[in-house]
Write a structure and sequence with these properties.
2 copies of one chain form a homodimer.
Chain A lengths: L18 E6 L11 E6 L5 E6 L7 H9 L7 E8 L5 H19 L6 E8 L6 H10 L7 H7 L8 E7 L2 E8 L12 E6 L5 H14 L15 E6 L9 H21 L7 E9 L2 H12 L2 H8 L5 H8 L12 E4 L2 E5 L2 E2 L12 E7 L6 E8 L3 H8 L4
Parallel strand pairs in A: 4-5, 8-9, 10-14
Antiparallel strand pairs in A: 1-2, 2-4, 3-9, 6-7, 7-8, 10-15, 11-12, 11-14, 12-13
Chain lengths: 392, 392
């Protein structure tokens, strides 16, 4: 592939020095929209790390990329949208491998230096003639990170990019994800690039720390994808080695930005709901409780209706695996107490939830130190519409 | 209250000898529909048993009725719809107690012989003047079990009754429940009556056994109510003492009928979906896996769209707490294999799911003996509509 130097004005994955990208319309999507991209690390270093779905049913590209990342080294990430290459058996893994091999040939790399990310429909074999044609067409590297971010979209309505500028070094990122957002990542693909000097171990730690409080707090519909992948590559081109705190902060900044963008673009969303839980034994229990509320369809429908139906919060949280005092639970909507001591507050039904952002705070009343939050969305007609007519 | 003898043609809770019922429109519901009922056991015996929600946040009537049932004796069950009397603190329990006391006075009973069941909105105090007026109005007992079944409806569209006729004895039942159906009962209130001779222990065993394979296999939206209650009363008026097997079979028959009616009438349902899971280590794990699929909104939306998107089954089950071989999962839609060895079967997208009933069978591929099933529904526009405009 033809290498070029990213322009200083580049954003997203091409913002850091020494990263190039390319996008194309191979023809995988019936819609005829862009569907393949590649992000290439031009060095000098090839340190990398990744986090993947916790689903036990994983797509072939996850299996492949996990193995490719085992040595903490990557030179490129190849993406396709429109087909997840999941649940395709041995042929699926053979196809992913063929994609990596062809990209590696064109980039003069070893196939183990190339990760592969796929997103789209589960259970359909990749149209490999079209896909390999797309890999050829990607052989025109440039600095257009936005085009790459656009090519990985599925039901996303906007491309998602983030950039963190630091003294002497830069971090860029792109991501996609709108539905299936659940614990341990969303249905997301994320690629983060940086020209900082950072070891694979430092990158892995930063990525896990940031994911825990960003992507892993997003829970749109309780579903967890077979393909979730977040990869970070660091080439050291800036010559600057940030402290662990500086590195962690930059990774957190771009991950938080992408997570915000994903929540805002979640399928059929009309409300962004933040649920925080306190007053239970541990942070893990608080997270369980917050997730239980965030996944409750009756609660989510109430949010769609701007309905301060706090009874559904209590009904939902009563089933959570968390210590609570059932007689002493308090609920706040947008800061206003609506339920104190497990009893309704006069005027609770009049709390205004008509805005796009809704804050729900729940105190489980045990006095324990546990606290956590999740971000979710309402359950709307558009969610049903989008997800009942996806594959057919 | 005025006692009368049920007619031989009575169905539902009044079908067995020695049970009377009454219904009224007290004025709890803004709609002006019937909203209170009572079922009275006229003896000679007063044996009873019950099962209740597993939610830790329980409504006052659950607290009260559990205590009333502690001695295995009940003479009457008082119902109201339109208000769940849940999350109302000490006042809620005082109100439930006042309801039971007034009914007991009128029926010449001890308050501890009266159970109370409430269903409706959570977190609103009962309008006690209206409610106590309703208790007075119920003082006109007859044999119209159907009127009682109608008065306990909330968003139910049809009254739900069942009757099991046996040689010399009879069992009758009524129930309500359409949403919030989840593990450990649905949002259901059920009252079962029988003129058989049966001990409280025999009744309890029969009820728990039947609930496990009927109400507890219904999972419409993963939510669990604060008010779920199933009560059975046996008066021995027939003089016939069925064997444990005969008693269990009759209880199972009426519970299965009510569960079928509840599934068919679930909020916004356009599909009835049965999900069975096999090939895992234990029945409990199979149940976990079936529930995980049945609660997955992406799967439920696909069912609404009659879309044989089996990939969503695999993505959902991969997160279940159950032993599986991720490379050897098979899925059948209406008996047709759509995924074998975790790989799509040619033609899988053409399986016809346009009918109302959809059967989903999943083999987790370990060869283990565990198996279980749940019954659920699709996620439709009507579900969102009904549940986004409930309280406001």
């Amino acid at each position: 592939m033809t290498a070029s130097t990213p322009s200083p004005s580049a954003t997203g994955v091409c913002a850091p020095t020494g990263f190039a990208a390319s996008a194309t319309t191979a023809g995988i999507k019936p819609s005829g929209k862009p569907d393949m991209a590649v992000v290439v690390n031009q060095g000098p270093q090839a340190n990398a790390a990744g986090v993947f779905t916790r689903n036990r049913v994983v797509a072939a590209p996850v299996t492949y990329s996990r193995a490719a990342l085992a040595d903490g080294q990557l030179r490129a990430v190849l993406f396709n949208s429109g087909n997840a290459n999941a649940c395709n058996g041995k042929q699926g893994l053979a196809d992913t491998t063929a994609m990596a091999q062809r990209a590696a040939e064109l980039l003069d790399l070893d196939p183990q230096q190339v990760a592969v990310c796929s997103t789209g429909l589960i259970g359909e074999l990749l149209p490999m003639d079209v896909v390999l044609g797309g890999v050829e067409a990607l052989n025109n590297l440039g600095a257009d990170g936005h085009a790459a971010a656009t090519a990985i979209m599925t039901t996303d309505t906007v491309a998602k990019e983030a950039t963190a500028y630091r003294e002497g070094w830069t971090m860029g990122a792109m991501g996609k994800g709108v539905g299936m957002m659940a614990p341990s990542l969303a249905t997301m693909l994320v690629c983060i690039t940086t020209d900082a000097v950072a070891s694979p171990q430092a990158l892995q730690g930063a990525l896990e720390g940031a994911s825990a409080v960003t992507f892993n707090t997003l829970d749109v519909d309780g579903s967890t994808s077979t393909n979730d992948t977040v990869i970070i590559m660091a080439n050291g081109a800036s010559g600057v080695e940030p402290s662990p705190e500086e590195l962690n902060a930059a990774v957190l900044e771009v991950c938080a930005s992408l997570a915000d963008q994903m929540q805002a673009d979640a399928e059929g969303v009309t409300k962004r709901v933040r649920i925080s839980v306190e007053g239970t034994a541990s942070d893990a229990q608080a997270l369980n409780a917050a997730r239980t509320i965030g996944r409750d369809n009756l609660f989510k429908c109430a949010m769609f209706g701007s309905d301060p139906n706090w009874g559904r919060v209590l009904a939902a949280v009563g089933m959570a695996d968390a210590e609570m005092d059932p007689e002493n639970i308090s609920v706040y909507f947008n800061g206003a107490p609506v339920c104190v001591g497990s009893t309704g507050v006069p005027g609770a039904r009049d709390v205004d939830l008509s805005g796009v952002d809704i804050d729900v705070r729940v105190d489980l009343g045990t006095g324990g130190p546990g606290q956590a939050f999740v971000r979710t969305t309402d359950l709307s007609h558009a969610y049903v519409e989008i997800n009942s007519a996806y594959s057919s």
